[in-house]
């Protein structure tokens, strides 16, 4: 059923447009995997882009510095410790130098990526998780608790792992959820990570309490065969993509409290490629990309009918096999960029960044399109979350010059399981007068060097991330990237 739309609807995102990076700002000659598995095959953070690659005799992926655009050396080092094809990769949301991967060899591995360029291939993982009986198809990091990783495999089980341990090989997960009856195709957390939604090949959407391992809600729609599912931030709703009974590609919106029938079902087209949904909770925008298409459709989600409001479509003749997305803290706020995709285009061995931009005349910081957003500090330690504490993400500002990443995380107060509001930063004055908890001490040590350089580095920072380390993709008219670190100007040589 097509959703009803008023003829005119006011929205600050009505004219958002997609802008592909110029050829020299793409990543060329990248041997992208030929696997037919329905995953993203790409993970991005402000420092690195990771992509699953073709590899003889095992599974491997590449980790390329974000600013190293142009042609890739054919002998570029790989991360290659798996014995089977790599099926999924995900960066740790709280540490840009830790990445998890899962594989057909039934293992999950956690890797430590050196802060400098890879000089040689990495074959030894920091941690290896052995619990699944069959290949592992999906992994997800917990959105607010540090060192908690979820994995699911072709043994139909979801396993929860606590990585906050000295053991390098972990054979027993802290929890196993085993009531699914088929392969799990998608996993998604709500904002504070207290609920997990799954989409399964048995056509059912399930909402699960992951710590208790209990099933809270289950939905199966005869008119909607689900492939991917996402929580829509704090809107108490879910979105799923799949196909209708007539094999049209379809988007459905669900009420989190009542999964008996979708609130709305919207047919997209009759193509066969899987639809990947991406939701931006800051702007309430939903992006939908089809595997094998070049297009990106985007919608605005509202609390009232029609819930799903079509905005525009970015069109490209280059079909994507997989996709990566940059976290909000890595975007270029000076050009009003609100989302950035990295399209994997195997037919050209190319990774193409595509920026979604809100057209604005003013060059000043646009407060209304950049609300406080999830930062890099965890709200909870692994043990706290496992013991039943819920907390929303620690928020940060994207205002240029902000040094919020250099400050200590906030000190948690006594929290009940219902306390799910986002955690905001306090002033530094208040921080120094309180006793740090275990997670603050850990973060204090990790960030000590950055804090020591905080005042010196402020000028060279954009979004709290060093502008020299992680520049956004440049347009053709933009001058070469310069760094003002140390008072001088350093031009980065172009990579070919």
From TrEMBL:
Region of interest: Disordered: 427-496
PROSITE patterns per UniProt: WD_REPEATS_1 (PS00678), WD_REPEATS_2 (PS50082), WD_REPEATS_REGION (PS50294)
Coiled-coil regions listed in the entry: none
SUPFAM superfamilies tied to this protein: WD40 repeat-like
Domain DUF1899: 6-70
Start and stop residues of the WD repeats: 79-113, 129-171, 177-218
Keyword vocabulary terms for this entry: Repeat, WD repeat
UniProt entry tagged with the keyword Repeat: yes
Keyword Repeat among UniProt keywords: yes
Signal peptide residues on this chain, from the entry's feature table: none
Biased composition (Basic and acidic residues): 428-458
Family classification: Belongs to the WD repeat coronin family.
Protein name per the record: Coronin
Organism: Gekko japonicus (Schlegel's Japanese gecko)
Organism classification: Eukaryota, Metazoa, Chordata, Craniata, Vertebrata
């Amino acid at each position: 059923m097509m959703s009803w739309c008023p003829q005119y609807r006011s929205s600050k995102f009505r004219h958002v447009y997609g802008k592909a990076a110029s050829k020299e700002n793409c990543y060329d000659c990248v041997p992208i995997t030929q696997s037919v598995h329905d995953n993203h095959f790409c993970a991005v953070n402000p420092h690195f882009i990771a992509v699953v690659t073709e590899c003889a005799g095992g599974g491997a992926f590449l980790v390329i510095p974000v600013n190293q655009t142009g042609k890739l050396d054919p002998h570029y080092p790989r991360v290659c410790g798996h014995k089977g094809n790599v099926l999924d990769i995900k960066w740790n949301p709280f540490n840009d130098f830790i990445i998890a991967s899962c594989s057909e060899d039934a293992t999950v591995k956690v890797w430590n990526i050196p802060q400098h360029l890879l000089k040689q291939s990495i074959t030894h993982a920091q941690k290896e998780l052995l619990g699944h009986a069959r290949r592992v198809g999906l992994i997800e990091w917990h959105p607010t608790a540090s060192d908690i990783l979820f994995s699911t495999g072709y043994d139909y089980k979801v396993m929860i792992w606590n990585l906050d341990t000295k053991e390098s090989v972990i054979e027993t997960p802290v929890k196993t959820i085993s009531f699914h009856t088929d392969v799990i195709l998608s996993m998604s957390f709500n904002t504070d990570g207290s609920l997990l939604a799954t989409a399964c090949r048995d056509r059912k959407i399930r909402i699960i309490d992951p710590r208790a391992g209990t099933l809270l809600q289950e939905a199966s729609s005869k008119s909607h065969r689900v492939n991917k599912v996402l929580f829509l931030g704090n809107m108490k709703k879910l979105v799923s993509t799949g196909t209708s009974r007539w094999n049209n590609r379809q988007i459905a919106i669900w009420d989190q409290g009542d999964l008996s029938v979708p609130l709305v079902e919207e047919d997209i087209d009759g193509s066969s490629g899987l639809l990947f949904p991406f939701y931006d909770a800051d702007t309430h925008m939903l992006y939908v990309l089809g595997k094998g298409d070049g297009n990106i459709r985007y919608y605005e989600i509202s609390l009232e009918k029609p819930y799903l409001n079509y905005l525009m479509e970015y069109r490209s003749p280059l079909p994507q096999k997989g996709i990566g997305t940059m976290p909000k803290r890595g975007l270029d706020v000076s050009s009003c960029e609100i989302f950035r995709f990295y399209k994997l285009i195997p037919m050209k061995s190319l990774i193409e960044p595509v920026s979604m931009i809100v057209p604005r005349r003013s060059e000043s910081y646009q407060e209304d399109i950049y609300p406080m957003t999830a930062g890099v500090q965890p709200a909870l330690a692994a043990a706290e979350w496992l013991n039943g504490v819920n907390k929303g993400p620690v928020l940060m500002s994207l205002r240029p010059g902000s040094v919020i990443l250099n400050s200590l995380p906030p000190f948690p107060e006594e929290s009940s399981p219902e306390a799910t509001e986002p955690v905001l930063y306090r002033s530094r004055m208040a921080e120094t007068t309180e006793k740090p908890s275990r997670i603050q001490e850990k973060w204090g040590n990790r960030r000590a060097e950055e804090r020591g350089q905080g005042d010196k580095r402020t000028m060279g920072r954009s979004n709290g991330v060093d502008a020299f380390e992680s520049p956004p993709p440049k347009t053709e008219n933009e001058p070469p990237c310069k760094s003002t670190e140390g008072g001088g100007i350093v031009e980065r040589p172009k990579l070919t």
